[in-house]
Each structure stands twice: as C-alpha cells, then as structure tokens.
Amino acid sequence: MSSPCYSLGEIPFPTEPASKCAWGDLHSRRTILLFGDSQAAMWLPSFASLGSDLGWRVVLLAKAGCPPWEYKAAKNYSLGNGLDQFSCRKFVAEEVGFATKSHPQVVIPIGDDSTAGYGLYAGVPQYETELTLMLRQLKASKARILLLSQFPQYFAAMTPTTCLTVYGNDVTACSLNPDTITGRAISLASSEVSQSSGTPLINVMPLFCTSKLCPLFVKGNGGTHLIHVETYHMNRFYSAWISRALGQLIGRQL
Fold first, then answer.
1. What is the pLDDT of residue 211?
2. Which stretches of the chain drop beneath a pLDDT of 70?
3. 178-187 burial, b if ≥16 CB within 10 A, otherwise e?
4. Is the bond leading into 4 cis (omega within 30 degrees of zero)?
5. Can you state the percent helix, strand and coil of the chain, rounding each to 5?
6. 20 to 30 A from 69, CA-CA: which of 88, 113, 223, 231?
7. Is residue 150 within 8 Å of 110, Cβ to Cβ?
8. Per DSSP, what are the bridge partners of residue 32?
9. For residue 240, what pLDDT is reported?
C-alpha cells in the first residue's frame, strides 16, 4: 500500500486513483471502493485476493486516523497522525467525491472509533448521526453500500505482544471477549443504522472469534495463523488468508 493511496499526515489526495490505487482484477469493469482509515487499509490484502478470484477491481483510498464518516462539529484535539479534524473532513469529502464521480458498483466504508473531544470517544447517538450523514452523501455514487462489523481490538493495558510475553505458555489468557466488540458504541450504532437505512451490515466476527472468545491464533490448513499485527490491526498475512472465507460472507451482496 503505497502513498498516497494509503497515507499518513498531510499528503494530498491521490491523482487518478482509479488506476493508481487499484488491486484485484485490474481488467474488470466492476469496482469495489474501500475507503476510510487504517482499518480499511488492513482489509486490502483480503479484498485484493477476493477481487482476483471473483473478477472485481478493488480501489483503496485511506488515511490513517480518518474514519470515513465526517465529524459533525469541531473538537478540541489533534489526531495522532498529525492531522486535525478539519484535514480529515477534507480528505473524507474527497473520498466521497471520488465515489460520486467514478460510480463504483460497491462502496465499503471502514473505520474505527473517533474522538469526541476532551479525551472522550464518541457515543452511540453521535455515531448514528455521522453514519447516517455518510450514507446520505454516498447516495450520489449510485453504488451498493456495505458496512463491515468491527475488528477485535485490545483496548486494555494488555496488548497482544505483552500478553504473549507474560502468558506465553497459555495463550488462552490473551483471548478477547466477543461481547467487548459487539458492545462498543460504534458497533451498536452500525447495527442500528444498518436496520434503519436498509444498508447491509456484514458480520465479520466469525473470521476472528467463536461465540465465547477471540483468540490470537487460528489453526488451519498449512499451519497456525496469527491474527493481530499489534493492538488495533490485523496482520496482512491473516488478511490475505481469510479472503475466501470473506467471500462466503460477502459474496451474496456483490
């Protein structure tokens, strides 16, 4: 993922993203647009492989720390990527503008929690407002909009690395509780907005979790696979490995 298709900081929106930021089947006339923050970028290996298998061009546009929904009001913080919320608004507007002009068949906005200011994360009502606004703005693209459920993340003091260091002989202690993912404000808001707007929400939790736990490792043909690269993101090898399973979950919506 080369810049500026996936960028950090004040890097301008890419020129000619339809060709320069494309993966999968590059000859296909059918396009999936992934856009958002680093959570969108971590899915690229999976969608690129899926695109090659199913005959879809996959375009990625993402900026670290800038979720695909726009901020409703100014907030008193600067993002960890060196941007303020106004810079993110501009980039998100350019992403939506590209979708409107290029008319991809499918648009999948993917993002993480956003800060509400004063050191607080946004709550369910704010996410519902922002997600609804995003979907309204994307209508002009005439694309089919799909939402993905959230990826399991380590928000406690124990990270995957420190957990394996401390509990290396019993990695079950490093597992997450699925309820902590489905109970997050962004997860609750996504579910509500999906129902109210009729926008499909693809539940990707089975790719990472059982009904009781979300492990660090998954056994499969060819070996054991590590899910996380660090606290917040899936590693690219696991992302590529689950592409066909993702296709089973999302295929009916394409």
1. 93
2. 1-3, 71-83, 114-120, 156-157
3. beebeebbbb
4. yes
5. 40, 20, 40
6. 231
7. no
8. 58, 106
9. 96
